[in-house]
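sorry for the late reply, my laptop died twice this morning and i had to redo everyting from scratch. anyway the thing you sent over, i finally got around to it. pasting the sequence first so we're on the same page, its 564 residues, then the predicted structure underneath. double check i copied it right bc i was rushing
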Amino acid sequence: MSEIPDTVLLEERAELAMNAVAGLPDPDLGGIPYFSADLLARPATLQHGDWDWGSSHGRLLDACLLARQMTGKDTWREVEDGFRTRLTGFFGPDGLSYRQARPERGWPANANLIDQRAVLLSLTTWFVSDGAPEARRLVDRHVAALKRIAIKERDVWFYPASEYTPGGWPSPNAIALHLAPDPASFSGRLIMPLLRYHQATGNEDALELCGWFARLIVEKSGVYNEDGSFNAARAYRSGHFHTRLGTLEGLARYAGHTGDHELTAFVRRSYDWALGQATAFGWTPGDLADQRYEHESCSLVDLIGTGTTLARSGHTAYWGVVERFLRNHLVESQLLDLSWVESAPDASGDEPGWTTHVRVGERVLGAFAGYGAPNDYVCDVELGRGHTADVQACCVGSGVRGLFWGWNSVVTGNRINLLLTRATQQVTVLSHLPHEGRVDLDVHENLPELRMRVPDWAGYAKVRVSRESGGFDGGQAGAWAPDGYLLIPAPRAGERVTVTFPVPETTSTEVAAGREYQVRWRGDDVIGISPEGTARPMYSGRKVHPTAPRRDYDLTRPAKEWTW
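ok and here's the structure:
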C-alpha cells in the first residue's frame, strides 16, 4: 500500500459501482437484470422493464470490462461472463440483437434500434479489451445486418421505425412505445461505437454507416436547429438530451477521424448550446418538455464523452468542463448512503420475475442516479412527470463509462489534462484538490517534458513548481507551452515534481428547469448547494480541510493502456 491524498479516485468509484452491476441480475429470471428501482417506496422496489435485454446487458457488460481495466481486478468475472453469455444469446439468425418476448406483458420479440447501440458498444469494448475472436465475429455480423436493414435512398440511409422484426419493418409495438423514427435515437448514437470498431479492425461497412448516418443527422434530419439547439418537436422525442448528446459524441469522433473541421464546428455549436442548458456542475434536463425537470446520468456521461473527444482534438478549454462534471455531479450522483432506503425482510411481497423488495438498497449501492434533481439523488417534483425511477440499469452502466472516460483522459501522452489522481507507466498524478491547490507528479521514466493543465481560476502569477533540480514560478519566461499548459522540462525517473497554486472560493447562481440554486465553489468543486435536497441531499456532506487527508491505497498502473 502507498499513501496518497484522500481525494476523488475514479477507479475506486468504478469498483463501488460494480456492486450495483452485480446486484441487478434476477435469479428468478435466469440472470436477466432488473431495470429500475424506486427507492422512495416503502419497501423499496426493483422492477423489470422492456430494456432488460440488449440495452441493459450491453451497458452492464461494457461497465464490467471498463471497470476491469480501471481497477486491475477480475473480481466480477462471473458477473461479466453471465452478461456476455446472455447477450450473445439474444442474437437472431439475421445478426441483430433481439428483445425476448414476454407475452404476459404484451411484448413481442423485436430488434429495438436503441438496443443495437448498447450491444455494439459492449462487443466493441470486449474486442478492444481482450481481442476476442468471438466478439469480432459477432460485431462483423451485427454491422452487416445494420447495413442490410437500412433503407437506402440516393442521398440518405435511415431506419424507418424504432423496431425491426423477423418479418422486417415495421413493428406494431413501435406505436405503443410512442417512438417516432428519430434519427438521433436510432442512427446517430450508433456512430461512436461503429467508428471505434472500424478503428480497431478496419471494418469498412462500419465506416460507411458512419458516413451515411452523419449525413442523415447533419444535412437531412432537422434534429438540431441552425443555432445548435435541439429540435423540441415531439417527433424528435422533445429534444431528448441523452440521444442528442450521444449523437454529438459520435459526430465529434467522426469529424476528428475524417479531418472535417466544418463538422467539428457543427458539434461545438450544439455542444455549447447544451452546456447552456446544463448547470456548471453537470446537471442536465432530460428533454425540452415534461422530462426537463429530471436529470439522467446517461446524459451527463455523454457530455463528458463529447467534451473529452473535443479536448483531445485540440479544443483544450473543454478539459475544464469535463473536470467540473467528474468532480461534481457524476461522483455525487453515485449512491453511497442507504440510511434513507427501506428494504423488505423477506420475499413475501415479491412478484417473481417482475419485482422484488428484498435487499434492494444493498443491491443497488454504488448505482448512479436514474432520474435526479440538481440537489438530490431523487427527482420528486410536482412538475413534469413527477417521481419516476431513482435507479436505471442504463445509468449504472453509463456511470462507469463516464468514470472511464475521465480516468483514461487524466494523462494522454506527455500531458496532464485533468487534476485527478491516476497512475500510468510514465507518471503518477496525486491531486490534493479541493483541499489544497497542489498536484504531485511522481515520474517513473525519463521524459523530454511534461505539460500540465492549470485551471483558469488559478491564474499564473502564483503558480509554483518545486523539483529536485530547482523550481520556478508561473510568471517566468518559458514556464508555459504554446498550448497554454504549464511546461515542465526533462523530468527524470524517480523525481517528484510538485505544482502549487491558489484555490479561490466563489459563488454562482445556477438555473435548472426554471429554478435557481445558490452554489458555493472551491476551485472546480461544489462545496454546498442551497436549497438542499430532501430525500438524499447532494453536496451537503462535502468538507474541506487545510491540508488533504491521507489514506493507503495501491493505484492501478495498467501494463497495457487502451482507450475509447
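The chain has a mean pLDDT of 96.
thats about all i looked at so far, will dig more tmrw
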